[in-house]
Design brief:
3-stranded antiparallel sheet; single chain
Length: about 220
């Protein structure tokens, strides 16, 4: 009966033989059972983590046909994180957009990988997923803006009103109607009677918002 050590040795020999190939295809895995494929996956992952630059590119080219789709997504996310972190760190360090040589040194990725990623990242599914993650956080962010606004932050109030107003635009334009006794902004009516009910602090906040949005020539005084 085969011992665990003997089985492991057989698996290692099969993997060593496989890695000698110039290109590994799915048909090359036909002789591997489930446990051997798992062991192969762990081995390939460990090898990939140890490579840098062009050596890493060559290794990925060798095994690309046997990499699961989910793993390809993980590799893209890894590259994206490394590149964006490097750019952010280098801008903070040097005060300007870093050269590609600096990004190569900082990330350990090849120039070719960086070029390809920068050129194609906006069309990649991973980028679309990240944008959806930002969108899903919008309500939470607006809740914080609202909280700041009701606590007296005029800038937050202005941002909140502008964002809310954008959802009630007609044909892409904000409708502002004014008459002698009231002002209407979209569906909100601010009458002289309503103004009388506001406190001095509320009136001051409205005045501040109006002052910020009006051109210099239209400001009173």
């Amino acid at each position: 009966m085969e011992t665990h050590e003997q089985a492991l040795t057989i698996s290692e020999k099969k993997i060593t033989s496989l890695l000698r190939l110039e290109k590994i295809t799915l048909s090359d895995l036909d002789k591997f059972d489930t446990s051997e494929r798992q062991y192969l996956g762990a081995t390939l992952t460990k090898m990939l983590e140890s490579f840098k630059g062009e050596e890493r590119d060559d290794f990925l080219t060798k095994i690309e046909d046997v990499i699961p789709v989910t793993n390809k997504q993980v590799i893209w996310e890894y590259n994206h994180l490394k590149i964006t972190e490097a750019i952010s760190k280098l801008i903070e360090k040097y005060g300007c957009m870093p050269t590609q040589n600096h990004i190569v040194e900082e990330t350990g990725l090849s120039r070719q990988t960086i070029n390809k990623h920068l050129k194609e990242y906006q069309t990649h599914d991973g980028y679309a997923r990240q944008m959806e993650q930002f969108k899903i956080m919008t309500p939470k962010l607006m809740a914080k803006v609202y909280k700041s606004a009701v606590n007296g932050d005029v800038r937050a109030a202005r941002l909140y009103l502008e964002t809310f107003g954008a959802t009630n635009k007609r044909q892409g334009k904000t409708v502002v109607n004014s008459q002698n006794n009231y002002i209407q902004i979209n569906n909100t009516i601010l009458s002289q009677e309503n103004l009388k009910r506001l406190s001095a602090e509320q009136l001051k906040q409205i005045e501040s918002v109006v002052t910020m949005v009006l051109p210099e020539g239209e400001k009173a005084g």
